[in-house]
Write a structure and sequence with these properties.
Number of strands: 21
CATH superfamily of the largest domain: Creatinase/methionine aminopeptidase superfamily
Shape: elongated
Number of helices: 10
CATH topology of the largest domain: Creatine Amidinohydrolase
Number of domains: 2
CATH class of the largest domain: Alpha Beta
CATH architecture of the largest domain: Alpha-Beta Complex
């Protein structure tokens, strides 16, 4: 496949939109001949495309319709809220609406044989454009389309066969390009810097909500474009809520405070959890629990190499927590992948044995225990997977910190 895109013809650049007629044309139909892409083109994109095409051969499909926006972003660099991607054997068709007509001129990667289209009437446009005319079977992301959408689309595309292929694209986006890793690394740096600032800010009498707002605010000041997810701040007995949303509860002297947050840089996420004691020194038992969790985290992370099974990593940490007699209070999986979404595959869990950790993926490891009516603790860091071992992108304190 050639790696050049079609140049814009001056005549077609100034052509007015076709006026709709009652029979054949639809509003907002307009084919756009592609501009030269301005974004840096990571070499990893070519590998992803080759892997997808190879997988399609096994599925006996001549192309795939990609509807999940994060997957479209991974393949094209498009960051908007509306897009559709058709990857065929000899060309790629990107479709969005007129809100993003200018944006894509500068944002899209220079994909091989890329053709871009502008429309608000997707399937009627696809049928009229005819680029599926020579396709016998096209795959689709069955885990991303609803049953209704898939049935309706199948009916519209007949006689083209619409074949469900769940999770065909995701295995090839888990391994990140150097450019993507740099964005994640920056998001991690911001998260670490915010934690240091929060240590100077937090004190008894503040509400959990106060702390969550301050985390978000300081992240923006340091260059984050958004929160990676809804920030979690719990204190005291509310720490037993694994994913407790911050409330107006006041932090009391001696409360254990759990903060789980992350930021986005160029769409890519960080995800860390920090646990501290506020207003007093932690008890001996609290120190012991934190030290045990930190040990479980470190042992699991030091076991990370490319192709390791996520279930094995979970076992490494869970064994330590079980031996401490707290296994019943560690209800969730050990970790997950990070990228454009804060939770991606591979999942690091005892519940699945098919989650293989690829080289150049970024994963979060987050052991925790949640003791009803007492407190909750979690330690979470982000790690880059390399052939030479794990690279820590964040690093929690080895001891339970107290803010006096």
């Amino acid at each position: 496949m050639s790696k050049s895109t079609t140049k814009v013809k001056a005549k077609e650049q100034t052509k007015a939109p076709v006026q709709p007629t009652p029979k054949t044309k639809r509003p907002y139909h307009r084919h756009i001949i592609e501009e030269e892409a301005k974004s840096i083109y990571p070499e990893k994109i070519d590998l992803r495309l080759k892997q997808i095409l190879f997988a399609l051969e096994a599925e006996k499909a001549q192309g795939i319709y990609v509807s999940y926006l994060p997957n479209i972003h991974y393949l094209t660099n498009f960051s908007g809220s509306s897009a559709h991607l058709f990857i065929l054997q000899d060309e790629i068709h990107f479709i969005t609406d007129d809100r993003y007509e200018e944006q894509i001129k500068h944002e899209l990667y220079a994909l091989p044989n890329l053709k871009t289209h502008i429309t608000r009437d997707l399937w009627n446009y696809v049928i009229e454009a005819g680029f599926l005319n020579k396709v016998d079977t096209i795959a689709f992301e069955a885990d991303r389309l609803s049953y209704y959408e898939s049935v309706e689309t199948r009916n519209k595309l007949r006689p083209v066969k619409f074949k469900p292929t769940p999770a065909l694209v995701e295995p090839f986006t888990q391994s990140k390009s150097p450019e993507e890793i740099a964005y994640i690394r920056k998001a991690c740096e911001i998260s670490e810097a915010v934690f240091k600032e929060i240590l100077e800010f937090i004190k008894p009498g503040m509400s959990e909500h106060d702390v969550a707002v301050e985390i978000a605010y300081r992240g923006r000041l340091l260059g984050a474009e958004d929160d990676a997810f809804e920030i979690i701040v719990t204190s005291g007995e509310r720490g037993a809520l694994v994913h407790g949303a911050p409330t107006n509860k006041r932090i009391r002297k001696g409360d254990i405070v759990l903060m789980d947050y992350g930021f986005k840089v160029h769409g890519f996420c960080s995800d860390i959890t920090r646990t501290i004691c506020v207003g007093d020194k932690p008890t001996k038992y609290q120190k012991t629990v934190y030290a045990m969790l930190r040990n479980a985290e470190v042992k699991a992370i030091n076991s990370i190499l490319p192709a390791v099974n996520g279930k094995y990593l979970d076992m490494v940490a869970r064994k330590i927590i079980n031996e401490a007699g707290l296994g019943a209070y560690f209800q969730h999986s050990l970790g997950h992948g990070i990228g454009l979404a804060e939770h991606e595959n591979p999942v690091i869990t005892f519940r699945q044995d098919d989650q293989i950790v690829p080289e150049d993926s970024v994963i979060a490891i987050e052991p925790g225990v949640y003791l009803p009516d007492k407190f909750g603790m979690r330690v979470e860091d982000d790690v880059l997977v390399t052939a030479n071992g794990p690279v820590w992108l964040t690093n929690a304190p080895d001891e339970l910190l107290s803010v006096l």
